[in-house]
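Weekly structure sync, notes
Attendees: PL (lead), two postdocs, one rotation student
Agenda item 3: pending single-chain targets
PL asked that the sequence for the first pending target be pasted directly into the notes so everyone works from the same version. It is reproduced below exactly as submitted, 223 residues in total.
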Amino acid sequence: MMCEKGFRLWDEYRRIPVEEMQEQARNHFTNMSRRRSVRAFSDEPIPRDVIESCLRTAASAPSGASRQPWHFVVVQNPEVKKRIRTEAEQEERAFYGGRASQEWLRALRPFGTNAEKPFLETAPALIAVFAQSYRLEADGSRSRNYYVNESVGLAVGFLLTSLHLAGLACLVHTPSPMGFLNKILERPKNERAYLQLIVGYPEEGVQVPVLSRQPFAETVSFR
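Predicted structure, written out during the meeting:
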């Protein structure tokens, strides 16, 4: 079969029987419904190749005009993690000490969070995610990226799913502002810190909040 210039035949697709499709969808839901954010991590090291495979999956996410406007920095050096914790807790103290509205603080109360973030040092890996507003070309020129927030959000979703399916726990951490990550990790001006993921094994006996999800019928419509 002839393809248009710049295209190729998508021959990796494999259609599966409906019964198998239904079973896989149910199994995936069951597995993903067990995922929880945790705030207490073991310091046990995690395999580097597992992180690399999960990041390869994240980098395969769809993006606006296929510009792939993201960069991931894996932080495992204890000194760098300590610097990140120091800077993050400074922002968190400002947040809990007056920057956040009372309504916001009430919403956070069931999670028992505060300005102290020891997991930033305890967890074996932090993955800082950066969004690129534009691309720096080899000749020094700039070229615009498109749908940056949406694209990076999709990549993070792929990454969260991959880490969970690989048997790792993680936490999304978004201190605001996060410019300190650019400084500490020496990222260029065309990138802004999007979020960081704390990754590792959960601490033995870790507890998570008892939460209820919205009824499915209230979050989904079929028309």
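Discussion points:
- The helical segments are 18-32, 48-58, 78-99, 102-108, 119-122, 148-165, 179-185, 216-219.
- The chain has a mean pLDDT of 95.
Action: rotation student to compare against the earlier draft before next sync.
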